[in-house]
Amino acid sequence: MRPLSLLGGAVLLGCAVVPAAARAGTCEDTFQKKGNPITGLRFTAQTAVADLPPDIAILQLQSLAAQRGYIVIAAEPQNGELLLEQASTGKARGFPITANATVAPGGVGTIQIVAKLPAGMGTKADLVKAELCGLLAQVKGGKEGRLAAKKGGTGTASNVAPVATSAQEFSQQISKDAERNALTIPQRYKGRKFTLSGQVEYVVKDGDKYRVAYKILQPHELALRLPNMAANLAEVSCLLAPGNSVFALQLKPGKSVKLTGTFYEYSEIKDVVWFMDCVPVKS
User: Fold this and answer.
1) Is 149 exposed, middle or buried (0-12, 13-18, 19+ CB in 10 A)?
2) pLDDT value, residue 140
3) 25-63: burial string, b at 16+ Cβ within 10 Å, e else
4) Fewer beta carbons under 10 A from the terminal one: N or C of the chain?
C-alpha cells in the first residue's frame, strides 16, 4: 500500500486492498476526523494489542511506515514516540504523522496515530481510515512482535522512483524547510533520489569529479512571487558520477540539463544543497 500523497490540492491515499482483519478490528471504531480543509484536518486512529511494550510497538511501526514510503523524522522507542512525514513530491506538500505507544497493567499495548494535514487540503475520511488502520493492523504482539521489531526496526523504503521536479522548485522546497526547522532536513531527505531539471549556472572540477550548479533565481528576480515563498533560495549543486567527464565538458552556462542524483547534504551556513552520484537523463 502506498503512503498518503497530495496532488493538485487534494489528498490521495494508496488504493490497495486493506486486509479484512484491519477493517473488522477496533481501529475503525476509534477513528476520528476533526477540523476542516480550510483551517486544517486532523485524523486519529488507534489499536490495542496484547503483550506489546511501547518500544516493540514503535520499532515495528517505524519499519512498516518506512517500507510504505513514509519518512522517519525521529523515533524514540524507549519513550513510545514516533514522528513520520509524508514525503513532499514537488507538486505535493508533506505533512506530519505522529504515533504514541503506551502499555496498560497486564501488558496490553495501545498505539495512537495522528495525521495533521495542512490548511487548504482535503480528503475522504474513509480513505484515511483505511490507510491508518491498515498500517496499525500489521503491528503484532508477543513473540511475533518482538521478532518483527528486531528484524526491521530501521526498515527503509525500497524501489522508490526518483522524485521529478525542477531545481528551482526543489530549492524553494528545501529553503522553506530550513526556515521552519533546518534540523529536520537530513532525516527528511537522506538517501532520497531526485531528477532535477533546470539551467546550468556553472560547472567546476571538484576533486576528481565534476560538479554542476543549477541556476537558481532569487525571489526578487522572479516575475511572479508566490505567497509563502522562502525569503532566500538555496543553491543546488550536483556531483556527477564517475564516467561523465565527456558530458560535463560539453556543458556551459545557460544550457538546459536534467540530472538524477541522491541527496547528500544541506549546509545552512553556506545555504547550499548537494546531490551526489548524478547522472544525465536522456530526453
Assistant:
1) buried
2) 95
3) bebbebbeeeeebeeebebbbbbbbebbbbbbbbbbbbb
4) C
CA distance 239 to 245: 11
Contact 232, 270 (CB under 8 A): no
- Low-confidence spans in the chain with pLDDT less than 50: 1-2, 5-25, 154-158
Q: Could you say which of 123, 152, 181 is where a domain stops? A: 152
Residues 217-249, buried b or exposed e (16+ Cβ, 10 A)? Answer: eeeeeeeeeeeeebeebbbbbbbbbeebeebbe
Q: Which residue has the cell 522562502?
A: 230
Q: Which residue pairs, CB below 8 angstroms and at least 24 apart, start in 81-86?
A: 82/58, 85/188, 86/3, 86/4, 86/5, 86/6
**pLDDT of 175-214, one tens digit each?**
998 998 899 898 888 888 999 999 999 999 999 999 999 9
CATH number for the domain that contains residue 205: 2.40.50.140
- Name the domain boundary from 110, 127, 152: 152
The predicted structure's pLDDT at residue 216: 96
Provide the domain limits for residue 147: 5-152
